[in-house]
Every structure is written in C-alpha cells, then in structure tokens.
Give the backbone structure.
Amino acid sequence: MEALFLDSISAPSPIRRNARSYYCTRSANWYFSSHCNVSTANRNNKLKPACCLNSENARSVKALPSHVEGLSYVLTKEEMMTLNNVAERDTTSKFMEKDSSDGIGIVKCFSGKVLFITGATGFLAKVLVEKILRTIPDVGKIYLLIQAKDNEAALDRLKNEIINKELFKCLQQTHGRFNQAFMLNKLIPVAGNVCESNDLGIHPSLVNEIASKVDIIINSAATTTFDERYDVALDINTKGPSRLLSFAKKCNKLRLFMHVSTAYVNGKREGRILEKPFSIGDNLAKEIARKSKTHSISYQMLDIEAELKMALNARESFGDDEVTQKMKEMGLERARTFGWDDTYEFTKAMGEMLLNKTRGDTPVVIVRPSIIEGTYKEPNPGWIEGFRMLDPLILWHGRGRLTGFPIDSNGVFDVVPADMVVNAMLAAGASRLSSARLKSGIEVYHVASSTVNPLGTADVFRFSLEHFRTFPYKDSKGMPTHIEKLKLFNSIEDFNSYIEQVGEASNGSTSQRFKKKLAEQSKHMAKRCISHTRFTKEVLVEKILRTIPNVEKIYLLIRTENTEAVMDRPVEERSLFWQKH
C-alpha cells in the first residue's frame, strides 16, 4: 500500500497519467495514492482516467482525457480546473460513508461490528480506537485486551491511559459531560495477555461472551525494542499472534483477523518487495545469497520450534546477573544468522510465518507499516506518545547536543504518520469485509512512504535546523540555544575522525573547549541514537521499495466522493508535506 502524502498545492499543467500510474484521493490537505494498472483491453478502448472518479464527478468531466500519448494519459489544464471546481466537501467522512456499490464503505462495514483489540494501551491502538469512535459512532462494543491483574485494574488503565488522554479531546468536546458514559458503553476492558496460553488469561466468565459476539480481531500487541531479550521477543512477537489466532477460532462470528506487523520484516531484502506472506522456514540470508549467486555458503533452515527451545534452554543456563544481556546478544545473533537486522523484525517475521501456517480458513489481513510517527492531522496534528524513532535525533540536534552523526546523507527515512496508518488499516479491513472474492485466505499490505514521497536524511536535519532556529530551545537561564547544521558522515570511521580533529584543534580557548565538548557529546549521543533507533547506515539507506501487486484491491481502496487525478509533482513540492509535519 504505497502512500503519497502532499500538502494542498496548485497542480502543474499538463498532468501526465502513465498506464501504470497513481490514482489519488484528496482529503483536507493530504493525499493518498496507490498504483493502479490499466488492463490491455482498457488501453485498446482508450479508457479515460474518469474511471477512478465516482459517477457524480465523472459527469462533471465529460471528456477525460482530451488526448492520448502512447500508454500515457494527459489531463489538460482546463480539465484539471473542471475537477478542481467540483464542490469541496468533507471527503474524509464521505470516503468513510460510501456504500459497497461505489467504494468500500468503511462506516457501513464497521457499523454494528464488535471488535477485539490487543495492545490497547499502545500508541497505534489508541489512535485506532479514537478514529473508530469518532468516525463510526454506530460501531458495536470494542473489547480491549489490557495487561492487568484483574478486570478492575484493567478498567483503571482504560480510564487513565485511554479515556483521559489528550488524544480523545475531540470526543470529549462532542459528547461533553456524557463522554465518559459514551466511552465506557463502547469500550470494555478485558484483563489478559497475549503471552498467556489459556484463552489469553481472560476470565472464564468473559471468554464465552467475547467468543459469541466478536466480528473483528485486531492484534496490535508487540514489543518494539530492537534488541529485546530473545526469549521475551519470541513470547510476545512470535507466539503471541498464534495464541490470539487460537482464541479467534473460538469466535463463531469472526469475519476478520488483522495483524499489525512491520515493513521491516523484509530484513535485508533489496529491490522491490511484493506484498507476499512469509511461509514456515523462510530464510532471508539464503534467499539473498541465491540472488547474489553466493551458493558456496551453507545456510541452515529456519526452524521456529527449534528457536523457541534454544531460547528456553539458554535462559535457564544463564545466571541472574547475566541472563538479560546474554539473551539480548542471542537475539541479535540469531536474527543476523537468518538475514534480519535485529531481534524485533526477526521475531515479527516468525510471528507472520506461524499465522500463515495455522490460520486455516480464518480470513487474515497483515498490515506492515514502516516507521510510525506522530499524527499528521487526525484527531489533532502532531500528537505523539513516547520517545519514538526520529525523536532522539531531532531532539538532541535542537538542544545543540548533537553536531555530527554517522548516517548516509543520501538515505531515506521511511516514515508514516500514525493517523494515516490507521486509515490504511480501516480501508484494508473494509475492503476485505466487503469483498466477495476472499472469504478466507491471507492478504498483506505495506504502508510506507519511501517509494513515492521519500523523506531524505538531509531533509530531516534541514527541516530540524529551520524549526529550531525559528523556535529555539531555551537553556536553564532562558537564553535561546544556538544550533549549527548537522554534519553527516557516511561511515563510523569518518565520524570518529571528525571527533578526533575537533579534539586536536582545541587550544584551550572558550570557543574551542565548547566545540570539543559538543563533539564529545555528539559521539555519546550518536551511540545512544543508534541504540534507540537502529538507524545505522545499513538500515538508513532505504533499499526496500514497496509495491502493490494486487491492483484491483487497491483500486477499491481509493474510490471517494471527490477524486482528483494525481499529478507528477516536483520533488520540492512533495517535500512540503514532510516539512510541515
């Protein structure tokens, strides 16, 4: 699921539409686009791009396009003006309200449905719950699996960590003094844990109730620590989804099982990565070696059961004072053995493998977002919780404590705002629920930005510099912090040389001592940033381009009330989105 996110800016003319091109829907200053192939038959019939419009807009544009160049379709300036003159409306709500005969109809698909969501107190799940309650008020009950000793403790966490959060302010304004009653009527806290084998540790009195009512299960529970203890990551990320799937098979009304994974389950793969599920035994190291024709090395088969036993035996063999560090080292070593960068993405990939193996006839959707950051627009711009991926770099740069960093200056940060990930999840779920093609089976969606609207490494720090020079941090004396342009180094060696040069240049002057101190802090912060974010050069150079092979599926996802043909915008115009974000 490729995403193109832009600001509302004027379109160049003419606007070229390639046969393999992007259709785009606009919704209040942001765009979502996806590859849409045109079949050979349609090319022969000179199919007009109005096929991606609804009937109302199609009537407004009677002759699209005016001319054809080979396999490209071109909209003239006049035709684009016709599209732009279609009355502006709240396209977000209209997109949600479309019925299944003219779009996927998210509201209709989810109205009256009972949901069961894990990882409910996590960052992404909160954004998801808020979006559903705000835009689909007729949704049925939403059971939230919350790690707690009992249901009373789970209720306390629901109130403190969800209902009373700033994120839900829009709902508070909508429902006023009745807001908590509305929320508690819709949200049902359930004490449990995906690490529990016996019905997720749910109290027996609730198991039958949930199993008899739930239509949709969404798994957002995970440990996202990149160097997590191997045994812990296996328990949550690998076995957790399978335990939830076992519970799902008891739900006789279940119509959808959605699992939130990560785009980085693709590990060290390069090139265009199709939206294909993993199979048991997949070994990325072997796959990569085969493509590079280095068959001389022997690669062991990935045996998940063997990995689970190995981790258990290793944990029992280490003493209390060393078990945590040893298990972390083991996770990283095993991940790299099989072609993944770290424990997190390795255990998430194995979780997908087990889901695919054990799903039976359960309809499964796997959503693989890249780096999830703060919200772009909904319910309010910039909402974020916790210390996320880009935050350490930007924060320390803004405070003047990071003057250099070992990172590829030509690299790409594949970042997607949380509200757009949630929109993609709801659209993918509605597409599956409304589809007559696939009652069972498994579908995979990549939710990423690097292919069509990449955020360059240099751009991140340019935007950061501009922001903090306009809105500087204040030191303890209330004075604005001075920051300089961050020096980027393509290797650790170059970065270390820079640190040494700054140190050698110090002659005792105040300014030189200050620069030396900053350089030393930069080295320390760089190590911490790498530890926190995994942004080593190998990961930062964005090699994975994500594509959508199932064109029909994506075409259904993007139909909306007000559709504009996407334009080939200059890169500097596309970057406006990231600068604002």
Notes: The two ends are 21 Å apart (CA to CA). Confidence is low (pLDDT under 50) at residues 1-95, 97-102, 531-576.
